[in-house]
Structure formats: structure tokens, C-alpha cells
Amino acid sequence: MLVPRRTVLFIFPLICLVCGVFFPEITRADSRPVFWKADNSEAVIASDGSVAEVILKGNISFVSEDQTITAQEGHYFPDKQEAVLSGKVRLLLRAGTVDTNEAFYSFANGFGFTGEAIFANPPWFGKAKRIEIKNSEDLLLRDGYITTCDLAPPHYRVTLKSASLKKNEWIKIKSATFMVGKVPVFHLPEFSQSLGSAEVFALGAAI
Q1: Which of 1, 147, 168, 186 could form an S-S bond across to 154 if both were Cys, CB 3.0 to 4.6 Å?
Q2: What does the pLDDT read at residue 203?
Q3: Is 45:62 a contact under the CB 8 Å cutoff?
Q4: Is the pLDDT of residue 157 over 80?
Q5: Alpha carbon distances (Å) from 28 to 15, 32, 48, 66, 78
């Protein structure tokens, strides 16, 4: 993991961390407020006296507007409002819940990406080698599958090269192969499904 060169380390008071206090950061007028807490934290001080980086360990939690992210280890860069996280990372977004072991997220613009991850937003479930977060309501899954079966492994699924998901609007899949168990049923270069409140998804019936 690449992080900026450290200068002086300052350890935040342990009593505040034990109490589970959320630490708000001092932000610019055009930035989003970010609150975080962790069992242990260290600050890296830049030459100008500002906090260049915060090193977090144990039960990390970030809250910013409608996004909540938890992890076990992380590096947070206050000036850019960016976090590099690892260990049981969970992103709670409007588009759904993403679980992974490594992730990057920018609170400033709501953009991020993960390593191999599991996605859930009932009735949709999925897994992908990489998930790109365009914003809290818009995700892109790469090289994986989606399904409406909540079992692991699912009885049926749609394998995909990529899938764009917009909350309450649509899901668009490229290179979709409909599978029952390990048996491919048919392939479509593109497939889309409306996610409007009046729509009923019937993947099982379609197969």
C-alpha cells in the first residue's frame, strides 16, 4: 500500500477512542463533513503543521452524509477526503451494500473502487472481481455475476463482463450468460432490466 512519506507522529488521546467518539474533521466550505472513529489512531503531521494522514486500526467507522463505511485498517487523507481501507470492509450506500477486503473511497466526490467484492440490494445479489462506485446510487460491477437468489452459491445467476446499476432505475449488463447451476442456458451481448417500483423481476421464470 503506497502512502505519503511520514514526518512526525502524534497519537490521539486514547480515552477519546475508547469512548467511541466520532472525530469530525475541519473541512473547506465546499467539502462534505466526514466523521470517523477507530480503536487506535495516529496522525502524520506535514511540514506546514496540518494533518497529512491518519492511520486507523480496529473497528473503523466513517460517516459522511448518506455513506457509512466500516473496516479494520485504513489510511485517511483529510486534505483530499480519501480513504484506503482493508480488512472486512463494508460500504453502506444507497445503491446497496458492498463487502470486500480492500477499497478506496473519496468522500469529496462519492467515487471509489474495491477489490473482489460481494454486492447486495434485495432482490439483487452479486459478486464481482471489482466494483467501481460512481456515486452512492450508481455502481459498476466487473467480471462477476448477479442473481435474485440469495443462496450461496446461487441456484441461478447471470454471469457478466460488466453491469451498471442505478438505484430504482435500471441495471444494464454486457456479455450476459444466463446460468442454472453450472449449466449455461443462453447468452446475450447486452441485457437490461428496469428497477422501477412498478417492475417485477422474474429471472427465475425467464430461465
Answers
A1: 147
A2: 46
A3: no
A4: yes
A5: 28, 8, 17, 19, 11
The answer to whether domain 7-108 has CATH 3.30.1490 is: no
Report how far residue 73's alpha carbon sits from residue 23's, in angstroms, rounded to the nearest whole number: 16
CA dihedral 199, 129, 36, 66 (to 10 degrees): -10
d(CA 127, CA 23): 33
Length of the chain: 207
Q: Is 52 helix (H, G, I), strand (E, B) or coil?
A: strand
Separation of alpha carbons 33 and 40, rounded Å:
21
Summarised one tens digit per residue, pLDDT across range 117-156 is: 999 998 889 999 999 999 989 999 999 999 999 888 899 9
Q: What is the pTM of this model?
A: 0.80
Q: Distance (Å, rounded) from C-alpha 97 to C-alpha 157?
A: 19
- Cell numbers of 8, please? 512526525
Q: Which residues contact 38 (CB under 8 A, 6 or more apart)?
A: 17, 56, 57, 58, 59, 60, 61, 74
Going by pLDDT thresholds of 50, 70 and 90, the confidence category of residue 191 is: confident
Phi, psi angles (nearest 5°) of residue 150 = -90, 15
The yes-or-no verdict on residue 29 having pLDDT over 60 is no
d(CA 151, CA 99): 16
Domain boundaries defined on the chain: 7-108, 116-207
Burial-class residue 66 by CB neighbours within 10 Å (0-12, 13-18, 19+).
Answer: exposed
How confident is the prediction for the chain on average, in pLDDT? 84
Residue 58 and residue 18: Cα distance in Å, rounded? 11
